[in-house]
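Data card: per-record layout.
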Amino acid sequence: MVSMVSREWNSAMRHDSTWSVRFQQLLSAMAYRSKRIGTFSTMSSYRFHLLDRKRTVLTNEELCEINWSFRFKKAAGRFWMDQDPYWQERGPMSVIFSPDGTTKSSHDGAPTREGMSINWCWGTSADGTPASGYPCDFIRYSVNGEEVPSLHFSRHPIHYGIIIQSCWVVYSSFPLPKPGEDPFMEDEALGVDSKAQMDQVLKYNSLRAPDNGELEVQLAGMTEDGNMLINVGPYQLTCSNEVGNTLLGEPPAAIIQMIQQGLNQESIVGEAGPVAKDEDSAEELLLDHVD
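The structure for this 291-residue chain is written out next.
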């Protein structure tokens, strides 16, 4: 009797009708569904998507077929946020990763980075050649030949949409929610910050004391949320009033040394975004870091 019941139960559990409702519920809850599946039974398809929903290694085809939504993180600084349409309540930019290792970005259908050299390759690339390397869970990225902090893949914990992020930017395979609409998409919840990418932040911003000893520390102004903007030579840091007042009393070389040693990561470098270089126009600076 037990054997008969077991056989009947096993047969029922393998029947498509047993899994069809559950399978459709799973698919309807997922913001991204892989196309890498053949003709399988409903149960096998359900199992595949159940496991695949947490995958963080994309194929070349998957990376390049998605129209990614893009925004800057707050850690990029007020300069970048002020020029990002997302933070101006005009919606996020759109970005396409091309198979040749370049990218195309736009906003409301209008190109936003024509003529710029913005390339990507997989984190496994040996030499940074555009589109080189084999798929892994992060992307190396360069703007006009300068490598910026790498982009790491993750999945949304509720609907499993794909997220790519560095300490300064966020991409998503789904429409980016407005600030405050999704707690899992707030900067504090995303996880990758400047502390985690300290070496890459320092390398890109080239935070070092110049040989001629002419570095100066100056108060550049205040942000809307009450933080101080401190200029260290051609570089700008966003920090709390307490930290800012301390920096203004320190020798410039000592400030650079503190940053390079990783001290005060949360209050100094953790809020310091891409450096604005004096010789670049505001438009070029934005386009340099759109992706």
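Known properties of this structure: Residues 130 and 274 are 22 Å apart (CA to CA). The chain has three domains: 2-52, 60-193, 204-272.

See the next section for split statistics.
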